[in-house]
């Protein structure tokens, strides 16, 4: 016993001493008084060029599928993936009498869609109030009310247009951010296809310099539709410099839009979030960022709210892309996010096919929930 | 928002002061708070329902109504129940009796299977096994590539006969079942004793891919099928887990991305719905960021309480036995703690992994989370540089370090004199602490914690003026104990105050109950050895 106790104390002590010290030293190296006279030291090596030669575009880029028919597929898919919610609610609401148990179960059904405790409760309460005021217990009517309340929560009046064009000569700058494994690069690729289908000129920036082969993946997407990808040859290059290069290239060539893919980062890693802030700041030296899209995985639970809040704080997100909606997950957290942060869901990803990205349609979304 | 369950409960109970016992209505309110906390932690609705009923039953019993502090008592019950569901024992990998042990990984896209394959390989290699990674994910672009990179980082060979797809537009051509089968055969031929088969991510509703997973499983007859699930997953955890249970009938669960700030209620859902144990947790991007899963710690996380045990365990795992004996001897002889010891200590600590994580595991660290996030492990190198700039004589006898020596040390290490001073000062405190502990005086109230931790928070560090104050205040509160904390919470009522008191207040009061300022894990060590 004594041995391990000493050992533990010893370690604890070491950790404390080191920790305390490290905090002192955390201030890091300081600049000499009066600052540096030049931006580079005398013995500095010349900065490597951030921009590498782009791969040649294929001679015959393919045409992505038109945007128009996508919503039909969205509905078909949504009604499949969300049928549980819809049916569950319908079964409940077609009962004879509406008592407390029914309300509890409605709330739980909403909770199951990852709507979150707060919004679910509010939704049920407003529904209760309306039922009381209107004095109805007709299930069809209640269903109609539920639909209205859900639509009100999702708020169709929000502006869900992507700001793809910059002011004047500036290209529109779209920054795509999110945590690991939600499908950012894929979203950028799919969105690029949509833009090409709408005949916009476009540049992609592969600012994910961390994950192995992420730039390759993006470039493959770009090449398929004849869009240039600005990337760095080195792995682990400064993502901000790649983003800057991409924006600069877009401006020089008069492209309509530049879309920048960033590396996945968990929102509680302060260092990585700072890096993301820098990417945005540096890019804005060329042209203001017109659209910051946060990609959220439909399976994400209440942590999605934390993600949205932190990313909103760091890069001021202007829209949400909800991916992987083709599974059983319902992605209800976006309703809560929209409710709390006022950031609209703009796009939904519906599968692994290259054209499985559709604009978010609130009424269609809710209809699909209840159909 | 209230952060931890204990805060929520404290706020529920604040109206109950003066009441002799809890009425059923009080318990109902409590259970509602628990339910809400669990839902916020993404525990699945059916599981919450069941759980809340169980808690209610126990909370109406005498153990709560007769307790001095009902809120604490309820938290304790919740904690116990959570642990019960998560599984009491830590489950280990079942090894095959003959031939290689086959482990298959399955899960949704983006859950982190490929990364985990590398981590698991590295972990098993560290335990003296000879693992082989098999790249059966021929679906996702570059998955085979990624596994090769990961395998290289982990120093584990990878069997990848098929290049897989390199972009979204290639149709997957190879047969993953065949690759898995060949992989196992290769492992047998080359005498690997563990085979880890990485499979493609798939959705629970995708019948075709699920069948493929089942085929792989049938072809290689794995000892373990691990279901990898993202800690951030929400209510869908239940559907997915059930789909995978039907599909591949997994034997264990791995939680990935636990280094995020998701509370990971999914762990509870999956364990409770499928009855399968959670075996591992993946906690970062490096190949070493991988641990065995501990139900008790996860329970605390779901409730948003702290974790000390892991720290102690990591210390034990990586500690050099000879070094420990030497220290113990030194300790017994009541010799002075010198810079030489400090260097050795530093090396040991470094072996334990990231300093940031260690610090985060210290009690009360939650207060400094922000500073911790900014903490760079290389800072330790700078401390080491300072010590290394001392002469051997100075290291053994720090007392001789005078002004000019300090200036020299600072120059030698690229630090400033004030940094050297700080180190000396801190070191002096540590020396005193060691001495006191050696004499057996320091133990009961652990001056290390009292002196060290507030100091840490109070450091000019990242320049968070407000933070500094909060951390200091907290140090004081540890001693002032429970009533003060509750008063503060009552008076404040506002969320800000409640939050500050939160994780700290919780810990403070636990300490009080233990009648000494030792973190929880310690008494376990006192007890069973």
Proper CATH architecture of the largest domain in chain B? Orthogonal Bundle
Average pLDDT of chain A works out at 78
Oligomer: heterodimer
Broad shape of chain A: globular
CATH fold field value of the largest domain in chain B: 434 Repressor (Amino-terminal Domain)
Low-confidence stretches of chain B: 442-529
Percent of residues in helices of chain B: 55-70%
Main β-sheet description of chain A: 8 strands, mixed
Q: Strands across the major sheet of chain A, in which order?
A: 3-2-4-1-5-6-7-8
CATH arch. level architecture of the largest domain in chain A: 3-Layer(aba) Sandwich
The CATH C-level class name of the largest domain in chain A: Alpha Beta
- Structural class of the secondary elements of chain B? alpha/beta
Write out the CATH superfamily name of the largest domain in chain B.
Answer: Signal recognition particle, SRP54 subunit, M-domain
Q: Biggest interface pair, residues each?
A: A-B, 75 and 100 residues
The overall pLDDT of chain B, averaged over residues, is: 73
- Return the CATH topology of the largest domain in chain A: Rossmann fold
Binding site for GTP (chain A): 178-185, 261-265, 323-326
Catalytic activity (chain A): GTP + H2O = GDP + phosphate + H(+)
Function (chain A): Involved in targeting and insertion of nascent membrane proteins into the cytoplasmic membrane. Acts as a receptor for the complex formed by the signal recognition particle (SRP) and the ribosome-nascent chain (RNC).
Transmembrane segments (chain A): 6-26
Key structural traits:
heterodimer; A: 371 residues; alpha/beta; Four Helix Bundle (Hemerythrin (Met), subunit A); Rossmann fold; 8-stranded mixed beta sheet; 13 helices; globular; B: 529 residues; 434 Repressor (Amino-terminal Domain); 26 helices; 8 strands; 59% helix; flat; disordered C terminus
